[in-house]
Design goal:
Layout lengths: L1 H25 L5 H24 L9 H18 L5 H22 L6 H18 L10 H21 L5 H22 L8 H25 L5 H7 L2 H14 L5 H18 L9
Helix pairs in contact: 1-4, 1-8, 1-10, 2-3, 2-7, 2-8, 3-6, 3-7, 4-5, 4-6, 4-10, 4-11, 5-11
Amino acid sequence: MRLFLLTALTMIAFAANSLLNRMALVGGGMDAVSFGTLRLVAGAVMLAVLCMALRGGLRLGHAGQSVGVAALLLYIYGFSAAYDALDAGLGALILFGMVQITMFMGALAAREVLPPRRWIGAGVSFAGLVWLLWPGAGAQTVSLWHGASMAAAGVGWGIYSLMGRGASDGLSVTAANFALAAPVGVLLWLVAPGDTIWDGQGVVLAVLSGAVASGLGYALWYALLPRLQASVAAVAQLSVPVIAIAGGMVLLAEAPSLRIVLAGALVLGGVALSVGGRVRVTRS
């Protein structure tokens, strides 16, 4: 029961990133670039503190770190930009589907032998994403720009996950990547066009997203992974978009349309089929 509760808490933390980002932007209290930068810096500080306490120090210079840092930046800023318009749950669905499709493409590039189940699952998820993003009449038509921003974020996190699959210490690698990405994020914030919008609530939400939902959430996940069966770890993450949709309905009065519900079911169903029996660790 304790393991179940800690796993559920971790999934809530991952879904909270969508909710916190959307809450900060929906009322106009924070612009996307500022939110992403604050989240990145807060996450870097929290992860560095955890590494100091749990690993005795922060070690930089991991293999493939430049690619990891670039992928992390693509994820952070694509994620924030998308939530200027996307509902929390919808954004989580697009992100989650693109992460899995990116990792599927990475497996193809690595010439892995893929069972038919994974091909079918990837195709179903891709079909669901196309339906989500396809222009059409009616309520909740998805903005192609913002949908593409979240899709780019999913590609970034998928690449980040592929880079980290062979890491012996995920916490140390992620802490180092955040530490190196944070100064780049501050530079991007300084040169970004448009108005910078700050308010107290937005700052608090960004810090919570970076330090708690990202930093502490990742640390808890890395601690739990050795105690979870591979299939449990993979399937548990299917709950993240569902939690984000439920949270958006309760906290932000977001009501998903039938189209989003059905397309989301395709995305999650395809992912469940693809990851069945194998672990695919993703974090949002």
